Amino acid sequence: MSKILVIEDEAAIRRVLLKILSEENDTYQLDEAGDGAEGLEKIKDNDYDLVLCDIKMPKKDGVEVLEEAKKIKPETAFVMISGHGDIDTAVNAMRLGAFDFISKPPDLNRLLNTVRIALDTKTLVTENKRLRKKVSKNYQIIGDSEGISKIKEIIEKVAPTDARVLITGSNGTGKELVAHQLHEQSSRSKSPMIEVNCAAIPAELIESELFGHVKGAFTSAVKDRAGKFEAANNGTIFLDEIGDMSLAAQAKVLRALQENKISRVGSDKDIKVNVRVVAATNKNLRKEIEEGRFREDLYHRLAVILIEVPSLNDRRDDVPLLINHFTKKIAEEQGAPVKVFSEEAVELLKGFDWTGNIRELRNVIERLIILGGNEISAGDVELFSGKS
């Protein structure tokens, strides 16, 4: 049910607008204000989906209402109502965030179409934000140990910048969560984050995967194809397991970072890209450099900010929080009640050697939830965890 506020100082026009809207859709919740100051107070006290606002009004004009309202209720859609002499002002209002403007006297079809589109757009924006929050929730970094708290602080400082980040740590520690948080908390979050698992792509295909190719570049290149760098334009590209990338591909990545341009395989045409690069590896790149398997110049380009994700064995105090998180998540996925872990079971799990890190813990929790009783006991852990 949409809530609409009409701010108009001319009572006759205000009554017409309210009548048109009520006849169009009897589910609209309609409210009114006779001047800009009254309208702004109502906006402060209510959550309107749409505001129809006159421009020329006493006390506060429509542009002032729009500017102040956008500061306190930025998601509220505004449609400005303008006289013929106010068109320049109305256009300026759109630059300030108004959805559209309609001229006086309002044309019925134009008014109703504008209202419908504004409300539909507001719904889409709200749903998109809800979905983004849901996606972001899937990439939460769980824990308040010293190591994890430090990582969260670094992310908070680094995410708003375009600084390149190299994330290191063993398999299963959650390096991809750090990468997603860097993207979600950045100004690029509305653009895509493209993930590339460098270890999973054959060496002979990695360049095509990253930079694309033109038709005829190789036997199976039957048409032009954009690569991951182009797909990530204005967003973030996450190069996971970059330590497994071939030296030839490393050289091209280095050029992309130096010049902000790439060229597709089989083409000499440059394509400009604006991409933030976040990389991750479970390898010691210093050792890889010494042994000639990784370019030192690329390392220095990537490692502007270094984030090392600790192993689970180095953050055992986070195990209870992780158990709680995974228990709720698994129950939600399976549509089952949330099971409780006894204190003894939690202490037993804290003491295990987690060579597979967070990934291994999650698998064990799921196994215990499936095979254990309504309350997971220490006996269940000993019997079903597969740990000793």
UniProtKB/TrEMBL annotation:
Leader sequence segment: none
SUPFAM superfamilies: CheY-like, P-loop containing nucleoside triphosphate hydrolases
InterPro entries linked to this entry: AAA+_ATPase, AAA_lid_NorR, CheY-like_superfamily, P-loop_NTPase, Sig_transdc_resp-reg_receiver, Sigma_54_int, Sigma_54_int_dom_ATP-bd_2
Occurrences of domain Response regulatory (ranges): 3-119
Domain Sigma-54 factor interaction: 141-370
TM helices/strands, residue ranges: none
Keyword Nucleus: no
Keyword Secreted in annotation: no
Name used for this protein in its record: Fis family transcriptional regulator
Naturally occurring in which organism (per UniProt): Neptunitalea lumnitzerae
